[in-house]
Specification:
- Pfam families: HTH_18, Response_reg.
- Keywords: DNA-binding, Phosphoprotein, Transcription, Transcription regulation.
- InterPro entries: CheY-like_superfamily, Homeodomain-like_sf, HTH_AraC, HTH_AraC-typ_CS, Sig_transdc_resp-reg_receiver, Tscrpt_reg_AraC-type_HTH.
- This is Response regulator.
- The protein is α/β, with parallel strands linked by helices.
- Helices cover 58% and strands 12% of the residues.
- Strands 6, 7, 8, 9, 10 and 11 form a 6-stranded mixed β-sheet that branches. Strands 2-1-3-4-5 form a 5-stranded parallel β-sheet, sandwiched between helices.
- The longest helix is centred in the N-terminal third of the chain and has 52 residues.
- The radius of gyration is 39 Å and the shape is flat.
- The two termini are 68 Å apart.
């Protein structure tokens, strides 16, 4: 619905329009009246006015002056002027001030209605156009914000072969995603390979840190050079754009990569290497990137460095022998953790001193240790995945990336396996007692099932079943029981604030503590204290 304002210093003229014309056939919501310019300004300031019908000649400020004010304070209002003089200067000035039309007095009601109808149609068209532009602006803003993601997806699909590498398709994508390339351009790819995180990271934290190293690569390696950094096959890939007639300085690229490695080591606590490719034509980029991944796979001895195409390890004809795993089976069956870990360390130390270690040697070591673990646990009738989740146990891509990562993985698997064997050789009651003790000693903390399982080197699901079987309570039920009993003791025997009692029993939010206490005891903390202390 549209709002209408009629302005004239003659009240009868105003009523002649507001009352004398039947507006029911028009989508008019409210009709306002004003007898001078000041009164009109007040109405306009307090209400949305879509159409204003105003006399030009009025005492004091006239209609043209009112229109100047409307242009500044209510620009969406369409103005139709009324005048008793067919003065061309008035018409010119009215047009200049942006009025919609003007009508000579005495007012022809039919003509005025026709003009109002046209004004309403114009307002609708203007609103539709405004809505279109606002919608376009919104989606364009979203598109601009998503552009880096769209560019990354384009390169990923090109490298995977999902986008055909023909000139027409590539040119269209370059234009659409504002990539400054054509078919004569070349790309210099740099593969970033994270070799080791100094801190233990869960999957979510590792994903965040990998995002951080990509952002750092854009700031340090790409900098002002046209290019982008994308995620590719679980690694990060820098693509530097090289236009026709341009050349990138390899020493400069190497220096930037070295600075980047140093920054990541300092700020992100990780070691990584950069595999620098050659300036490659667009149509050969997929093959060159595949070469870089192969170079990464072949390299198991060099780390924390910049490696050019001709500097990476090549597949070897004569490979060092893998260790004899039969002795390791005996050590694991006996739960001799220190001896097994020492044997692993000795073998990897020996491999690191050998210059001709290839990826297949690392893979043989990896699969050999896995065989030892599966063989021993199955022999004892134990489920391997109750000891460790499948993704942690068989972390092939990470464990075989370098000798250092192989060492970290192998020591962890050996340690967990031996502790698991020992816990079952000694009896499960000791495990349950240890968990109960851990809960008692960390009552003021918010303990998770995973943290409790880690304290006894068991799978969380297996620990839950074991604990329930031996105690008759779930871990959460036992934890609640211990906390509530301590809370009852503190409420009954001390004058500590209830908020302090909540903190001492592991609840950071008083309201949640009060809810759990009433659910457990049937009384609020205040009622319970009153019953015992009076």
């Amino acid at each position: 619905m549209f709002n209408l304002l009629v302005v004239d210093d003659e009240k009868i003229a105003v009523k002649g329009i507001t009352v004398g014309i039947d507006w029911e056939a028009f989508p008019i919501g409210q009709i306002f009246e004003a007898l001078d310019v000041n009164e009109a300004k007040q109405v306009l300031s307090q209400n949305r006015i879509d159409i204003m019908i105003s006399d030009i000649e009025m005492p004091g400020s006239n209609g043209l002056q009112l229109q100047e004010w409307v242009r500044m304070h209510s620009p969406q209002t369409e103005t139709i002027f009324l005048t008793g003089h067919a003065n061309f200067e008035y018409a010119q000035q009215a047009v200049r001030l942006g009025s919609f039309d003007y009508v000579l007095k005495p007012v022809d009601h039919d003509r005025l209605q026709d003009i109002v109808k046209l004004a309403i149609e114009k307002i609708k068209e203007d609103q539709e156009q405004l809505d279109f532009h606002e919608t376009y602006k919104t989606y364009y803003s979203h598109w601009v914000n998503e552009l880096p993601t769209l560019v990354e997806k384009f390169w990923q699909e090109l490298l995977s072969g999902k986008i055909p590498a023909n000139e027409e398709r590539l040119t269209r994508n370059f234009q659409m995603y504002e990539i400054p390339l054509d078919m004569t351009s070349r790309i210099l790819p740099i593969l970033i390979s994270v070799e080791h995180w100094k801190e233990d990271l869960n999957a979510r934290d590792e994903e965040i840190m990998e995002y951080a190293i990509r952002k750092a690569a854009a700031e340090i390696i790409v900098v002002e050079q046209a290019g982008c950094v994308i995620q590719e096959n679980g690694s990060s890939l820098v693509l530097l754009y090289v236009g026709e007639g341009s050349e990138l300085s390899l020493p400069d690229i190497k220096a930037k990569c070295e600075a980047y490695i140093s920054a990541c080591h300092r700020y992100f606590q990780c070691s990584l290497s950069c595999y620098v490719g050659e300036q490659t034509p667009l149509l050969k980029l997929t093959a060159k990137v595949a070469d870089l991944f192969q170079n990464e796979r072949n390299n198991v001895t060099k780390s924390n460095c910049v490696l050019l195409d001709n500097e990476t390890d090549q597949p070897l004809m004569n490979k060092p022998q893998a260790p004899t795993f039969s002795d390791w089976i005996v050590l694991l069956e006996s739960g001799k953790k220190a001896e097994l870990v020492a044997r692993i360390q000795e073998n990897i130390d020996r491999l690191q001193k050998t210059n001709d270690v290839g990826s297949e040697t690392v893979e043989a070591f990896y699969y050999g240790l896995l065989h030892v673990v599966y063989h021993v646990l199955h022999k004892k009738g134990l489920a391997v995945h109750d000891m460790l989740p499948h993704q942690e146990l068989q972390d092939y891509s990470s464990a075989t990336r370098s000798l250092n990562q192989l060492r970290n993985w192998a020591v962890r698997i050996a340690t967990v396996s031996c502790d698991y064997m020992n816990s079952h050789l000694k009896g499960v009651s000791a495990v349950t007692a240890k968990v109960c003790q851990y809960i008692d000693e960390h009552m003021e903390e918010e303990l998770s099932r995973e943290e409790l399982a880690a304290s006894v080197f068991l799978n969380p699901a297996y620990l839950s079943r074991l604990f329930k079987k031996e105690t008759g309570l779930s871990i959460s039920e036992y934890s609640l029981k211990v906390r509530m009993e301590k809370a009852m003791k503190l409420l009954a025997e001390t004058n500590d604030k209830i908020s302090y009692v909540a903190e001492q029993t592991g609840y950071s939010h008083f309201s949640f503590f009060a809810k759990m206490f009433k659910k457990y005891s049937g009384l609020s903390p205040q009622e319970y204290r009153k019953n015992f202390q009076g």
